[in-house]
Amino acid sequence: MSVIAITEMWSKKGGQVTSEQFSPQDVSYQFTRGFQAVVTVGTQEPEVLGHVDMPFMGQQHPNGTPSYVTSISLELVSPILYMGTVGYTGETGEFEPTDESVDVEWSDVTTTEPVDRAYNGLAIVNANGEPVDGLSVDVADQVVVITRKFATVNTYAVAAYRRSTNSDTYLGWPPGTARLVAFSAKNQFKLGATQERWTVTARIQFREPYANTTAAQAWYARWKQEGYYVRATAGADPKRALDAGGNDMVRPVLLKADGTLETNPANAVFVHTQLYGSLPYSALGLI
To answer: Whose CA is closest to 69, among 51, 83, 50, 90?
Structure first.
């Protein structure tokens, strides 16, 4: 599933400029542009919205006027074709709603995470080959703080990113490694004026896969396949695991992927569970 090409449509291009007081300091702008996106079957809206050739929220109109993207609508007209309309609005005033400056600051944050494998990838076990639990490691993640101005902010659309990692390569980091962990927007306006400005600050944390996993699973939960019940054979009903004396086990035993007993800690099965969705971070329009 991917976007093949996005082209602008001349038939939907238009706009108007109005002024109630016939003054260059009191001018309203409204423009529209149309786009068509040729895609592969099954391509979803976020993939189209996040494409480099699609305008993004808050982006200035290419004609240079102080008008900015405030709405984007998409319609799937065939299995391989989306039609999109982008709306721009803006007004002149004592300050411009956006400017070109973007502040980017990189730093580190350290968290403590559980670990079950040594640096060389071998299972951590005691002298009798039993897994050692309760160990942790300090993980230093890189964090970027981006600050810039927008004419409007859609906090509902941003909320979805709180529960998603990047589906695209973002600031050089591969898909699955970035997560929006903080977002703030400060509104500035003048009484009696219709124009406003938002100063947005976003904090994005990048995680390098440290727990023997892939970049796409960097933010997945990783847990060991173990429990108090085992299957004698694959597909059999699980029964309570017993120790050498025939008593119920008081600690979980390792399991194979089919639920049968795993006796070799080096072959412990680990499962990765997805906790966050996936969205194109370029569609945020931060940089």
So the answer is: 90
Structure tokens at 198: 């938002």
Nearest to 36 by CA among 14, 53, 50, 60: 53
Separation CA 132–CA 235 (nearest Å)? 29
Token pair 């895609």 is at which residue? 39
* Whole-angstrom distance, CA of residue 37 vs CA of residue 54: 9
The secondary structure of residue 188, as a DSSP letter, is E
CB atoms within 10 A of CB 34: 16
Q: Which residue has the higher pLDDT, 47 or 193?
A: 47
- What distance in Å separates the CA atoms of residue 229 and residue 237, rounded to the nearest whole number? 9
Task: Measure the CA–CA gap between 155 and 191, rounded to whole angstroms.
Answer: 23
Task: Answer whether 205's CB lies under 8 Å from 143's CB.
Answer: yes
Centre a 10 Å sphere on the Cβ of residue 137 and count the other Cβ atoms it contains: 13
CA angle at 140 for the pair 217 and 122, rounded to the nearest 5°? 60
What is the C-alpha to C-alpha distance for residues 13 and 30, in angstroms, rounded to an integer? Answer: 11
Residue 136 belongs to what H/E stretch? strand 136-150
pLDDT tens, residue by residue, 119-142: 776 777 777 767 777 788 888 899
